[in-house]
Amino acid sequence: MPRYDFHCRDCEKDFTTEMHVDEYEKNKDSQKCPECGSENVKRKITEFETQTSKKS
Ligand SMILES: [Zn+2]
User: Using CA atoms, how far apart are residues 8 and 53, in angstroms rounded to an integer?
Assistant: First the structure.
């Protein structure tokens, strides 16, 4: 199942949600922060996009 990373703009927490693509397409605009319940969250870049640039 694909994972989606989000960042909450209200409490500055990052969280990850696992769901089917279909489910994500339905719910992507109404994701809620598990910490504070805010919907003021933004999607972070995908794993595919980070694979080439992430190095630790
Ligand atoms: Zn939050």
Answer: 23
